[in-house]
Amino acid sequence: MSQSAKRLDKEITKRVKLDYLLHLPEAYESEPEKKWPLILFLHGSGERGSDVELVKVHGIPKLADQDPQFPFIAISPQCPEDSFWAMEEDALMALLEEVEDTYRVDPKRIYLTGLSMGGYGAWQLAAMYPDKWAAVAPICGGMEPKYAEQIKDIPIWAFHGAKDDVVPLSESEQIVNALEEIGGNVKFTVYPDANHDSWTETYANKELYTWLLSHSLS
């Protein structure tokens, strides 16, 4: 089943609008009783704007575009120009709610990932809604260590390039170290030769998806 472009336009306390790509696995229609795991993907700063096709440049939507059998429902929203994911939390959660209401999503297997600006967004959204995610995979992002307590029970696998000259490795290290100090459920992969693009290798790694699917909410 091909990836389709859609728009959320919803009134909550304010009106929120987000364009997004939706991927349904190829077997979605042929297995009408099955509930599917879902991945929410947050792109980096370079894909902001009003052309949702830009979101396919990297990461989960790129993979889903190339592989119709990608075995997750995937939501890939586009952040508006001059905004950041931390400013779009209401819209992201409204989008997630709409997709859950419309499609056969397994509520115990909802996963969150993002790269660069989206890596920061994934950390932040995990901290704001810690009970929502079965597992989180932030890539070359970061968060202040003071939020560690809020996310210590979420399975997290963070990724970063050691030679990143856009988002320093220390951005991931400080929150990972804080989580390790309080017994958080965290893994950390550092690519010794990678610069800012630590996402291509990460999203190409089948172990990531096996790891995600090994976690579900109780």
TrEMBL record:
Asked whether the UniProt record includes Repeat among its keywords, one would answer no
Entry keyword set: Signal
> What range(s) does the Dienelactone hydrolase domain occupy?
91-196
- Pfam families referenced in this protein's UniProt entry, alphabetically: DLH (PF01738)
Q: Which GO terms describe its molecular function?
A: hydrolase activity
Protein name in UniProt: Phospholipase
